[in-house]
Amino acid sequence: MDENHQDRMVDSTDSSSNDNQQKVSPPIDASISNRVRENRGSLEQQEREEFLAAMQKDFDVNRSDRGEMVEGTIVSIGKEFIFLDLGGKSEGYLSIEEVKAEDGSLPAVGETIEACVISTGPDGVVLSKRLAKGIRSREMLEEAVRSRIPVQGRVESRNKGGFDVMVAGVRGFCPIGQIELRFCENPDEHVGKTYTFIVTKYEQGAKRSDLVLSRKQLLQAEAEKQAEELRKTIREGDIIEGRVSKIMEFGAFVDLGGLEGLLHVSELSHTHVDDPRSILKEGEQLHVQVISIEKGGERISLSLKRLEADPWDDVLMSYPVGSRIWGKVVRMEPFGAFVEIGPGVDGLVHISNLNAPERVNHPRKVLELGRQIQVEVLSVDVGQRRIGLARVPEDGEFGELPVTGSIIEGKVDKVVNFGVFVSLGPGRKGLVPNVEMGTPRGADHQKDFPPATPIKVMVIEVAEDGKKIRLSRKAALEAEERSQYEAYIDTGGKNVESGFGTLGDLLAKKIGKK
């Protein structure tokens, strides 16, 4: 206690005595006095407990795991040891010989040192800088084996089964299967790099030491620790960051931090991706969305395209019915061909809408994968994500368009309720409505005009570049009759053969009667 404080206590006592001499205190009831003492004792006990708790909290030592790398600030330098502040009132120390430079100089107070934890105890944390920077003392290798303390080594070169690694001047061997967490595809990338290893075997020999190392064990331990933490927090729908660890034909594996997820090729983009390597690189950092978690987190499916805008949101405005656009053939099935008409938007050209010159039983007879073709939008179903397309024939693919008013011969393709479809040549079809058939009311066209029956028709309308052709058998019959009549008149009443029976004879008889 300092003198000033003592003087203040004496002055306070003297003042109190003078006041007592001048004033006489009234008598205090005994029960009140007891309650005051009890309250005062309770408050003192509470304060004492809070003080002890605070003291205990201040001097709690942050225990570090053996083998862990830590950083500390030099707080003092003794004759044999250097003492470090590791944070949180935790103190560590290491031998002064480990930090002494070749010229005998030492680091200064306040500098930061990285070291490896050898052990922990009531006196503090025992550290070693030699283990932290690659053991410089061969005698410490045995301790590294015994305590499984990580050591640092430099990969010098490759050999038949793995790598030559230098640790504290001792040549060690790391099997190729122990250099990475998984299969090592590019061993040369490790040469010249410094890694942390676990010593799995160390035997000193007369000529050379047998030192075997593993980096994989450390990577596995770290991955398992991270995986356990990630399993507790990861949920479907989460958007998390990961690193592309491996790329395969079917997709890519993404390291999420101890756990790996599969980014399937179908989830890479809304556009078609044939090779994942065209948009991904190993080691690349990217954000992905978790779409499913199975087997307690052992199987995680990821998506990249779900973070992009959905092109189907604007499909009705972008591809209205009746519009013609260019697209790429991306897949073919027996029933038709799928055509990509925009990023992430495919449509189906059914085999019946191929508009091929001849009837085909597979789209490959007309199309090729990757080929650009023009199509017309027939239907759009946003809910089912379906677009119906029809192939637009190329210019001149089916020859010249039929001329309106011309009479041509075709073959019956099929009979429907409202008329007869007639094939006019490769890729050309026209419709003869029932009213244009020139048959009696109630005639059975299915019976009278089976498929492939030759039929003469007149072209009465050609629309939409030949896509719609309206025909008339009745007009063709009438034109044939007029032609034969005119020929009969021109020949002076001689008989003219008719392709429709004996019409020439009938006309001649009628004219003769007149």
Spatial sequence of strands, sheet with the most strands: 1-2-3-5-4
Biggest sheet details: 5 strands, mixed, barrel
How many DSSP H or I helices? 9
Radius of gyration: 48 Å
Strand segment tally: 25
Low-confidence stretches: 1-28, 51-62, 498-503, 509-514
What structural class do you assign from the helix and strand content? Answer: alpha+beta
Strand content: 35-45%
Shape: rod-shaped
Give the end-to-end Cα distance, rounded to a whole number of Å. 158 Å
What's the rounded overall pLDDT mean? Answer: 79
Helix content: 10-25%
Give a written overview of the molecule.
- There is one protein chain.
- Helix 8 crosses helix 9 (503-513).
- A hairpin with a 4-residue loop joins strand 14 and strand 15.
- With 514 residues, this protein is of the alpha+beta class.
- Mean pLDDT is 79; it is low at 1-28, 51-62, 498-503 and 509-514.
- The longest helix has 29 residues, at 30-58.
- It is rod-shaped, with a radius of gyration of 48 Å.
- It is 23% helix and 36% strand.
